[in-house]
Amino acid sequence: MYPVSADDSLRSAFVSFLKPNGTVVGGGVLVTDENAIVSVLTCAHVVNMALGRHQFASDKPTSDSVTVAFPSVPGQRCSAHVTGWWPARSLRDEEETLSGKERRWRGDIATLRVTDALPKQARPVRLAAPSLGQPAWSWFGSGEPTSVVRVHVSAVADDWLVLSGAPTGHAVQPGYSGSPLWDRKLQAVVGMLVSAHHSLPYSRLTTADITRQSYAIRADIIAERCLAHSPKQRLLPGEVQSLLNAQRSAARAFPYRAIGLHGRDPSAVYVRQQVSTSDNAAAALATDPEQASAAPDPVVLRPKSIEEALATHRHLFLTGVAGSGKSTLTLQLATRAVMLPRDGAAAATLLPVRLLARDLAARPGMRLLSAVSDALGASLARFLARDLDPRLLEQRVPGSHWLLVIDGLDEVTSRADRADLIERLRVFMEAEREYHVLITSRPLPDDERRTWDSDKELTHYAIEPFQHHQRAQFAHSWFSDDVDLAESFLRELASSRLEEEASIPLLATVKLPRDLEHSMPMLRGRVGAVAGFRPG
Prior knowledge:
Layout: H1 8-13, E1 14-18, E2 24-32, E3 38-42, H2 44-50, E4 66-69, E5 77-86, E6 109-114, E7 135-138, E8 149-157, E9 160-165, E10 180-183, E11 188-196, E12 213-218, H3 219-225, H4 238-252, H5 266-269, E13 275-276, H6 278-287, H7 298-301, H8 306-312, E14 315-319, H9 326-333, E15 338-342, E16 345-356, H10 357-361, H11 368-379, E17 400-407, H12 415-431, E18 436-441, H13 446-453, E19 458-463, H14 468-478, H15 483-495, H16 499-502, H17 505-516
Parallel strand pairs: 14-18, 14-19, 16-17, 17-18
Antiparallel strand pairs: 1-2, 1-4, 2-3, 3-6, 4-5, 5-6, 7-8, 8-9, 9-12, 10-11, 11-12, 13-19, 15-16
Helix pairs in contact: 14-15
């Protein structure tokens, strides 16, 4: 038995991959495709290792069978052959062979059919979309119960999940690849382990690297692309999709792209930050004497993803200091429909529209939705093939709600104009119950903050700085073509005592490479001109 009964159904589906000599090389899991045919799911590189091939060989194994075992039926082995093959490919060039030094890649999925009769104890499990901010569990490829590793699903990097583990205990290591990432609450597989931090030396009890960072391929991506499970999402009307596409183009043209190490698409290096209610909760307790001695609920105060916050609250007021990543977060949030999975319910969908608060304040004589549409059309004009329908935001889209993202309230410099805009937004939020609103700002004066405190449906959040594992993810995304340079950058960052500055995204992007250039000759020539630049 696994340590808790919540793992029993996974144990029945767990599969071990073996070399001919019986050595375990990785794990896998029994799943079903859309035709209810049972398959074994694992990483392509696990199959390669089981067959004695190069780890990242790209050609599909056609004749060789793979030996698999089932921890739920000790001693029983079966043969399986590959049916689906999506080999590991470079993020930069799909034709490029991986060297083995890469930190991230795409693909690396295989499905197999067991040629022998499956043991009656072996039963497939379902795949489900992961939830950011939630815990998950995985096991060594042998399925040994005591090898369980608890991780935190901390971020999304394209098709992968970024997982952070505790600083002590078992760590994800060689032999965990292909193993299912298990969500005990959902009773479903939410990912498949694919990689661990490359510099973590092999020791299942090591504490050498406190980040304990690993990666898993998202189960929803696997289900859609490899098992032909159709995504349960309505097609958006053409004009709505065109709006989202225009906002995606605007995000790629974000001004900070031109500053720093290179002109890459910001989405390629973007690390999604978390948000926290901690500061606001403390302030709320201080202003409510009856609650002054109450301890804040740790579940409420813990950092969470912006999607999780939006799923919990109808309106959000997000604050952060200059350069903390508010604008970048809103730009990336507005690139696509936001899916908000909810326990025991169908996923809710928010359709984000992003505009600057100062553009909205510049239209004081218009109804709020009309002002939003007018400002949106003006800001996105060069990315749109045709003018926006001025009444688009008043139309209901089945299964979805509009999310108004108002960025930079503090940038409305006139206090009178800002007060007017605040009142217009408050009236709108109270009257229009079908809409969601996200407002970002630097911290406001106390009297203006108290104006928002009276709105019971608006919850205050503060954007969280980069944590240790997020700085590592950022560096490896930034230097995606040179893993050694990324590691050198992180080491120099730590020795230079600049990690606190690196927790502010804009400084990590613009200032720190410049500061470190003198001590890292390999950075010279890769740092853009930032003389005189000061984050606003």
